[in-house]
Amino acid sequence: MFRKILIANRGEIACRIMRTARRLNVATVAVYSEADASALHVEMADEAVLLGPAPAAQSYLAIDKVIAAAVATGAEAIHPGYGFLSENARFAEACAKMGIAFIGPPASAIHAMGSKSESKKLMEAAGVPLVPGYHGAEQADSHLIAEAMKIGFPVLIKASAGGGGKGMRIVLEERELLPAIEGARREAKSAFGDERLLIEKYLERPRHVEVQVFADSLGEAVYIHDRDCSIQRRHQKVIEEAPAPGLSDDTRRRMGEAAVAAAKAVGYVGAGTVEFLYAERQFYFIEMNTRLQVEHPVTEMIAGIDLVEWQLRVAAGEPLPERQAELQRYGHAMEVRLYAEDPAKGFLPATGRIAHLAWPANAPQIRIDSGVRAGDRISTFYDPMIAKVIAWGEDRAIAAQRLRRALQETELAGLATNAGFLIEVLGHPAFLKAEIDTGFIERHRAELFPASGTGGEATPDRALALAAIFAVLKDGAASKAKAAAGADPHSPWAATNGWRVFGDGGASVLLRDAAGKRREARIAFSGPRWSIAVDDGAPLSLTGPALDGNALTAGTDHGRLRLTAIEADGTVTLIERGKSWRIGRVDILAEAEAATEGHGHLASPMPGTVVRVMAAAGDAVKRGQPLMVVEAMKMEHTIAAHADGVVKAVKFRAGDAVAEGVELISFEAGS
Length: 671
Ligand code: ADP
Known about the structure:
Layout: E1 4-7, H1 11-23, E2 27-33, H2 40-44, E3 47-52, H3 63-73, E4 77-79, H4 89-97, E5 101-102, H5 107-114, H6 116-125, E6 133-134, H7 141-151, E7 155-159, E8 169-171, H8 177-192, E9 197-201, E10 207-215, E11 221-233, E12 236-242, H9 249-265, E13 270-279, E14 282-289, H10 296-303, H11 307-315, E15 332-339, E16 341-342, E17 348-349, E18 352-353, E19 356-358, E20 366-370, E21 377-378, E22 385-393, H12 396-408, E23 411-413, H13 419-427, H14 429-432, H15 440-443, H16 445-448, H17 461-474, H18 477-484, E24 499-502, E25 506-512, E26 518-526, E27 529-534, E28 540-548, E29 551-555, E30 560-568, E31 571-576, E32 579-585, H19 588-595, E33 601-603, E34 608-613, E35 620-621, E36 626-632, E37 635-640, E38 645-650, E39 657-658, E40 663-669
Parallel strand pairs: 1-2, 1-4, 2-3, 4-5
Antiparallel strand pairs: 6-9, 7-8, 7-9, 10-11, 10-13, 11-12, 12-15, 13-14, 15-22, 16-17, 18-21, 19-23, 20-22, 24-25, 25-26, 25-32, 26-27, 27-28, 28-29, 29-30, 30-31, 31-32, 33-40, 34-36, 34-39, 35-38, 36-37, 38-40
Bound molecules: adenosine-5'-diphosphate.
């Protein structure tokens, strides 16, 4: 076994690898960027080496710097985690050249599987079923269009070098083809530096089922069960489970054997995942990922093994710890990816500081893989995943229930997350019946979004009322209000920012809901009884509200409510059983300014780069018409007209960098 390894990654996966290394008495070296100087993975490691500035290209992706760090610290091996350099054949070669063990497959296997097109050719030859499609070398627009027409709509355009759902476009009809090809190519080029595309028949409602494979350097290979990762948004996994529900033993075996054949075909060593789409009892190869997957913990839980330990042993030349016949399967495991993102805004990544973070205490059979703690920032530089929460259960229903409960007991404030949304999915009757496929989220939108506490349009009045109570209690306003009642109506309290007293034992709090709308909560005090009305809504009546630290409690007609309330950067986060509402506190002075803002302006949703401008000053445009495309975090975001109207000015050109919230286009609604 190695004495010392370097982990060329960050966040939860770096921390997770270090936990296994520590258990095996292997010393750890962390690498980090300037943005991560105080990150958890740096703190956990025995040694840490600064790579460079925050952008990954100058730090986590800088092959020379990572190799130099390993040499300088005397690390014998490098674990790349997932993402970053994990599937980079040049990096694997660079390690080999320096006599450092790369904890992953040989460069040749990464190379063979690195292109979806090439790997498909290999699989075709090995007799593994493929989704019908085109994966050839000819890339001219006219040729791609002709191939797409041959396949028949709907088709899916993918980046050959793709990953993480980036560069993918579904095309339903001929006239959408060319713009989709152009968009996919641009995204592929910027995300992977490789603009080659492939086209597949777009399967309606397939399931994503994948097989964990493992091979040693002695020629032995096994499959360690399967996983279902059908719950996806933007073709990216959010909930994963093992085993894949409802497959026959025969199907499992055939998929497993096909996966092992795929691994053997490329001389694979280490952990890998062979991904399939599964529809109408048929499975089709889509790609092989030549690394440890984000979702590997669900396999670990049902197999009772530590895949990182296996990786280290195999990289050190040891045989596989278990043979196919020895592998066991226990119960069911399920994982959610907790992301800093706003489900109500199309799952737009969110950034900001984690103002408060508390994981569930004493939750049975729950594993939390996290790389952050309260106070840490989620930046635009890296993936916005905050943590993975994984549950094991004797069966699927128990695993789902435990996972849901763990999320309900998790408290996180400071930025938008998908926690409330995940809770809705985990409790959805169709999910519980395992009626899942990759269209699940889209199909159940109407039930999943409004209830999840992230619904952009509607922040419930109840949440606004509670935020007002919190504001008043936090500012010590209650006593001030009472003192002011009937006393001096011009007391300074009347001018307090965000809330003011009105004469008869009451207060008014100005808030902003998730849709950005200004709302007023008026509270009337009568002894211990508080009555709160939001705008013209029916009042909510509570008794004896109290704030103790972050805990907000109050008596209701049915009992007592308890929630967690945190204020950071002008936003109140209310957390109740894992669902959270983010409510702005209105700054009265800033209000006047806002009032003069006038007509709509279209702002950048996050820091990024303008990649395309489709409108010019003076253009009359229709509601929903795309005006500009901004790329941020390697995803394209289309800025569309929010109403029919006229473009007054376009403030940026393609190639310009834009900060979050800056005005991109000024716009006048109405024609
Ligand atoms: P990436 O490498 O970017 O993650 P994949 O090829 O692994 O891309 O596909 C990701 C997801 O996209 C799949 O899990 C599935 O939901 C969807 N997908 C991929 N190919 C198809 C297809 N031919 N038909 C329908 N959905 C597909």
